[in-house]
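Incident review: delayed structure delivery

Summary: a single-chain prediction request sat in the queue longer than the usual turnaround. Root cause was a stuck worker, restarted by the on-call engineer. No data loss occurred. The affected request and its eventual output are reproduced below so the record is complete for anyone auditing the incident later.

Affected input:
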Amino acid sequence: METEKNEQERITDQPLIKNFDKNAMKSKYSPKIVGALILVVVLGIMTGFFLSGSIGGQTSGSKTNNILNLSSAPKGTIVGSKDTKTFKDVVEGTLKEGGIDGEGAFHLERPGGESQNVYLTSSIVDLSQFVSRKIKVWGETQKAQHAGWLMDVGRVEVL
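Output delivered after worker restart:
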């Protein structure tokens, strides 16, 4: 009982609020450490820009020619990837807007009627700039539910 009373007195003698030494807190965050953190952040941002190739407004991974309006590009203009191993399927026709039942955003009209259309998508080339033009495309055939032939286009040549 005696030890329990001593323990209770010891607990009640301690203050509820403890004072901290303000000088000890200031020395923890010295200007050198803050400066080093800012330098690391700035260098990280600069490294990201250089690796992405975004300095100067033009990406290093750009596969397009420097023609601003491709809808009036001269014959023989080639736009897109040079990777003909991935984009090994080749077809030509007149580019029209519209897919079939949600497959493809564009299609190539070819001789032989609607059954000969090739439906196209592309994340590399902006096909909208070639609408109503006769073109040759290199792409990769994709599995389709409704389209007879669905292709992911990687390269376009104006004919």
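Verification: The two ends are 103 Å apart (CA to CA).
Action items: add queue-age alerting; document worker restart procedure.
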